Amino acid sequence: MSTSRFGMLVGSFLLLALCFSINVAVLTAKAVCQDVEERQDDESEKTPAEQIADLIANHEARMAEFMQEYRSASPEDRQKLIAEKMPKPADSAGQLMKLVQQHPDDPATVDALLWIVNRARGTEQSQQALATLLRDHIEEERLGDVVLNLSYNTPGPDVEQNLRQIISQSPHDSVKGIAMYGLGQYLSRVEQYKDSLEDPRMVASMSEESLQYIRDFQPDPAAQETLYQTVVDQYGDVLFRNRTLGKMAEGALFEIRYLGIGKTVPEIEGNDLDGEAFKLSDYRGKVVVLDFWGDW
Questions:
Q1: pLDDT value at position 13?
Q2: Residue 78: what pLDDT?
Q3: What is the value of pTM for the model shown?
Q4: Nearest to 175, CA basis, from 185, 165, 189
Q5: How far apart are CA 207 and CA 85, in angstroms?
Q6: Element holding 239 (H helix, E strand)
Q7: What is the DSSP string of 202-264?
């Protein structure tokens, strides 16, 4: 066979191979696009409630998988695991907020908003979700699921305003009672923050608005006592996490009335290590060190 003839055959073969490769690539691309379109069509056929439920379930499943790996990891590997593999609530919260904005009138958006406020605390999406709840769903009884969490947010004027808005505008006694108890707890926490402002790390982690709010905060034990007493009197029978608000508020009242600096210590009666009966009041006027301990 001549050299020219052989070259033509090789060229033809390469051209056929190139054409085959191009056709395969085109077919593959079409298949991928078709698969994406089918998945998009499948998602578009789902109701907002189904899409919201899927997003939440997916995040919870990934979190459960992560926690299983975290528990089995060595202490030195856990921090790396958190940084690299822990599902970020903000990612799911962002997708949920898009659905809320696309379907603002769908009842299922409340589920999304409540999840964001509870699970994505401290994020921009959480602030947006809370603002939406208080603006559009203040009558929602399930607000009680997030109200107490608000009292643990970083102190600032918005936190107190939100709690007071819920107290004044919610039509549900359960929500109002929880918000009132939460406000009392929040005011106590602000006072604790005030004592921590000498820690540079604490100061560095907070916004100037929060710092100024804490610096200007004036403790008012009488106002807190009134809050808790109102909870006992008006919302005492409301159940919250297997306890009544009345019992919870009574504990807070006891602390305000008897356990503050300068307060008279409540009576303690018992037996000493020798079995002799005694009362704490027997030692009034003397320096007393109390050591509470237990053995389980």
A1: 45
A2: 92
A3: 0.73
A4: 165
A5: 29
A6: strand 239-240
A7: HHHTS-HHHHHHHHH----HHHHHHHHHHHHHHHTT-EETTEEHHHHHHHHHHHHHHSSTTSP
